[in-house]
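ugh finaly. both done.
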Amino acid sequence: MGYPLIDVALANGLAIMIAAYVFGDISGGVVNPAVTLGGAIAGKIGWKDAGLYMIAQVGGGIAAGYVLLVVLGGSTGHLGATTINTSLVSVSGGFILEALGTFFLTTTALYTAMSGRAGNAAPLAIGFTLVMAVTFMGPLTGASLNPARTLGPAVAGVYFPHIWVYLVATPLGGLIAGLLYNFMPEHKAVS
């Protein structure tokens, strides 16, 4: 059963908002290794913590994939694994979209939650950035923007088309966001 795209986009955005509000004071509420990488490069997350977070995030993604496998009683629809819709976009185009989407998501997290500039509104900004990305990119790439989100259903459903795109493009987007954060003078002026 397919759901309207806006329903899927809002569900994704709300899930991230809730995670950020609930776990924000524990781990920053980050559930995405690409965003964690960007935060570490920007100096907002220590490298030791970042490594542990990334292990937990990937492990959590894979565990969630297996929970879906059990709940759905099998690999129905490949458990929602993200793949590039090559009838609408090329693989290289999908790579660029996933890197750009992750760049925008990481940049939003850096300039709101990780910099402390947005206070309690930070999870809203992050969640709505994801809503925007899923609304635009969902039909093209599945709008993963998160290597753990990609790995979970791929591993549990044993379904790996274009997986390299998500495992390379999303960390690249986070890396570039973290590097640019360090070179943008505006973030240092506001504290």
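ok and the 2nd:
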Amino acid sequence: MSDDFMLDTDDLERRMDGAMANLRTEFASLRTGRASASMLEPVMVDAYGSMTPINQVGTVNVPEPRMVTVNVWDKGLVGKVEKAIRESGLGINPQLNGTIIMLPIPELNEERRRELGKVAGSYAENARVSIRNLRRDGMDQIKKAKADGMSEDDEKLWQDEVQEMTDKYIKSIDAALETKQAEIMQV
């Protein structure tokens, strides 16, 4: 029975990739002084009785480097979209022009850059915690197989593989954080 143990490393890696993709999405939502349509991804609008992503109630465009526009499809939702953007914590003051909401992206001051750097750090730490939890899941599976009669050599081999995978993802999280913080601090 012990020879049959196979840790599903593909599943573990897929789940770790998911944690990295989530981190990239969170990083994309942080504004760096340049306009980006992805910065509105986390904004949810109370539309038609449920919370809806902003890109499902209008078209998000970036017509120039310091401007994002949202062309709201339903005229009745313009006020709700504006309110959702205002309350999102992005620090952007929306301006109405009919069904188009214009979002001028102001220059970031030094204090705001530092705050965003800390937010990026907390996003990275959450990703690290997710990776460590996945590592623990893998190690638990190995311990269970050890209790079922797996040899110590096999146990060590699998533990090393899981740890190696964990280290690789933690390193890529750290690299992504460093890149994002440099981007945020760039004037």
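summary for the 2nd one i guess: The chain is about 55% helix and 15% strand.
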